[in-house]
Give the backbone structure.
Amino acid sequence: MKRPATLTHSLMLVPLLGTTATLSAALGMILMLGVVTGAFAVCMAPLRKRLKGASTLLTCLLLAATLTSCADTLAQRWFLPWHQASAIYTGLIALQCIVLEYTGFFSRPAASRVKDCVVYGGLMVSLGGLREIFGHGTLGRGLSAHWQGLVIFPEGLHLLTLVPGAFVLLGLLLAARQAWTRRNSVIKETHHS
Amino acid sequence: MNRSANVLIVGLLALGGTSVTYWVNRSNAPQIAAEHSSLDSRKLLDVIAADRYDNQPLESRLVLADTSLRHSTLLGGYRATRSGQTVAVLLRSQSEGYTGKLELLIAIDASGKLLGVKSLEQRETPGLGGAIGEWPNAWLEVFTGKSRSEPTDAGWALKKDQGQFDQIAGATITSRAAINAIHDALRYFDEHRAALLENER
């Protein structure tokens, strides 16, 4: 059980780091992930019981490929600037769907699935927002054609706009979270004793 | 029984999936092509504000005569119009930079004032003259609002050459090439004003 979960997580890491250079890019990816994974879950629900063995994999593959390529085409039509920046990551959504299916994500209780999605979405948005603020010095650029976004700093830290910068930032966020939870648990312990 | 049902499901999905993908691709192709060309032209045309014109300047090419200018060559030109009136003329100018060709897009409004300059292609030294390739570009913005006679011919030069413009730090030749190309384009506009402004029929 441990291995497949690790596989899911490491796959989730790719869009998390790759498509969060700006807030608008992160929101675009969340939309794509949500639409494709949601449609996949809906379409698989009636099929899952009727399929067995190898044909399940084949069905998942066909469904995920169809949904992803349709979503990709529609993204080109409506969000072309986003698509030009993040197109290489959309293909991964199909793989993501299959991995989620095989690690039993869709058969978990709804509450835990929703919680995971909200946590992941929140992480994407906060990483995208932070990287845009500190990397480009703006917030919300590219969300609308008529709005240039909030300018917060005249210049940003170039490293944060790159994928390694995203990795560093994610590490810092994790460290902060760990420090926070450790501090809370220490406080709890002292209260108990 | 179960097996054949599985095969049927997979077969139907394969057929349905391919046809849906094909249909989505096909039905969206024209819009995607239009989006691509509008994005391309926006990238090229962001020297002038999008609400100033309502035509497709890239499709409205100008026929230019005598394109060899004093310091540069004109590669082509476009006309931006608004309700049929020419509001801007865009000239693509090529001159010799420090390390290679320097291509600028120079936008001039109907009264001969410069609307903006953008570099389209350059091979200048990164970190020095290469700064001309950045967009938005503070150095090139200085020229906005200038015209052939404002400043005078003598003023159209670097401060180093007794003109009135600052140069890009460490890139005298690049700056000189850009100033000369811009001045050339303004002079060309002045001399061919009637032909360039001739409104579309």
Notes: Chain A is about 80% helix and 0% strand.
